[in-house]
Amino acid sequence: MILLANSLTxxxxxxxxxxxxxxxxxxxxxxxFAWKPILSAVKARDEMxxxxxxxxEKAREDMLKLLSDNEAILKKAREERxxxxxxxxxxxxxxxxxxxxxxxxxxxxIVERAKAGIEHEKAKALSEIHEQVAxxxxxxxxxxxxxxxxxxxxQTKLIDKYLKDIDLNKN
Amino acid sequence: MxxxxxxxxxxxxxxxxxxxxxxxxEEPVPKKDSTAxxxxxxxxxxxxxxxxxxxxxxxxxxxVAIYLPVILYSREKGLDIxxxxxxxxxxxxxxxxxxxxxxxxxxxxxxxxxxEIDEKNKPLDFSVxxxxxxxxAAALIGLWLFISLSRSYKKTGISYPRGIQSFLEPVIMFxxxxxxxxxxxxHHYEKYMPYLLSVFFFILINNVMGLIPFPPPFGANxxxxxxxxxxxxxxxFFVTQFSGNKTYWKHIFFPPGVPIWLLIIMIPVEIIGxxxxxxxxxxxxxxxxxxxxxxxxxxxxxxxxxxxxSIAPVSIFFVIFMDCLELLVAFLQAYIFTLLSSLFIGMxxxxxxx
Lengths: 171, 354
What we know:
The structure holds two protein chains of two kinds. By secondary structure, chain A is mainly alpha-helical. Chain A is about 90% helix and about 0% strand. Chain A has three helices and no strands. In chain A, helix 2 (about 15-145) crosses helix 3 (about 155-165). The model of chain A has no long low-confidence stretch (mean pLDDT about 85). Chain B has two domains: about 65-130, no CATH class; about 130-345, no CATH class. In chain B, helix 5 runs antiparallel to helix 7 (about 260-305) and helix 5 runs parallel beside helix 8. Mean pLDDT of chain B is about 85; it is low at about 15-35.
C-alpha cells in the first residue's frame, strides 16, 4: 500500500484515460493506414522473390531437361539413322539377291525353252528324215522292185511299220 | 547483464528515495537551510508527472514553465477546464489546490473553507499533463513516421526497400521473423502483428524521446510512468485472454494428470499466474525507464551536491556513458515488452498434443 499511496507508483485515472485514448488511437490509425499496407507490401514482395526463385530454379531444371532431351534426341536420331541405313542395306542386298535369282530362273527358263525348241526341232527333223528315208527307201525299193510295187497305201503302211521298228536314236 | 544489475541497483535506489519522506513522517528531521540542495526532491520532481512543463528557474526563484491545461471533474462542481498557471506556486483557484508536500505531491485536491487541502476530497483529474503531452507527441511522431512509410511502399510497389524503408523495414521484419513467428507460430502470428508493432514502436519512441532532455515535448518520463505501463500491460493481458483456446483454459482450471487435492493449490496459483505476467511487464518497463532517468539525474546532481564545477567533467562523462547505456535499454525494453507479450499470447494458444 506504500506504493499505491505514492504519486509515482499509483496509476492516476486521468493518465490511464489518456494512455488508453492515445495508445488506442495510435494502434487503430497505424493498423489501418500503416501496418496493414506495409505488411501486405512486404509479404507481396516476399512472395514475389520466392516465386521468382522458384521459377528460376524451374527454368534451370527445364533447361537441363532440354539439354538432356536434346542429347537423347540426337542419340535416338543417330540410332534411327543406323537402323535406316541397315534397312537400306538389307533391302539392297535382298533386291540384288532377288534380281540374281530371277535372272538365273529366267536364264534357266530360256535354256529350258531353247532345249525344248531344240528337242522339237530335232523331232521334226527326225520325222522329216523318216519321211525322207521312207520316200527314199520307197524310191530305192521301187527302183529295185521296178514297177511291181505301186505306190499304194498298203505299201506305205508297211514301210512305216518297218521304219518304226528301226530306232534311229539307237544308232 | 551488467546493465540489468545496474538498473536493478538503481531501482533499489528509487525505493530508497521513496523511503526518505516516509521516515520524515515518523521523526521530523531538522529544517534544512534554504541553500542546501535536495537531490531526491529534485530528481523525483523531474521524473514525476506534473501539470506544468518546467523549463528553468530564475535566480530570484521564479520558475519559467509551459502551463498545460487542467481538466477536472467532480460530482459537486462538474467539469472545470483552466490553465495550470492559475494553480502555480500553491495558488488556490475555484477551490482547487495542488498538493506541494508528501507522497501525493503534484496532485490536485479540493480545499475546505479554511483554504487548506482536503485530502479526502479529490476531483477526477483528466488534465493534459507533461506525460500526456510527451505521449501525444510520441504518438504523432509515430503516426507521421509510419504513415509516410506506408505511403512510400505505395510508391515503390514491389521493388527493393529504399530511403526510410531501409531503416524501418529491418525492424519490422525483426519483429515479424524473430518475435512473432517463433512465439505464435506461422498460422496465428499475422493477426497479432499490428498490436506487437504498435506496442514496440510506441514504447521505443517514448523511451528515446524521454532520453532527449530538451526542448519539450522531449524529456518527459512517459514510459517511466506507471499509468502508461499499466495500460500497455492490460492490453497484453486482454489480448492474451481473448486469444486463449480450449487447451489453455483447461490447463488453468482442470490441469490434466493432477490429483484432485492438489487442484486446491494449483488453480489459485494458475489464476495468480494470469495476472502476475502482465504485472511483471508493467513493473519491468516502469522500473527500467524510471531507473535510467534517476541515474542520469543523479549524476547531474553530483555537481550541485559537491557544489563545485570541477566535478562537472566527471559527471558529464558518466552522463554520456549512461545515456549510451540508456539508449540500449530503450531498445531493449521495447524489445522485451514485445517479446514477452507475444510469448504470453503464444502460450495462450497451445497446440492440442494430448
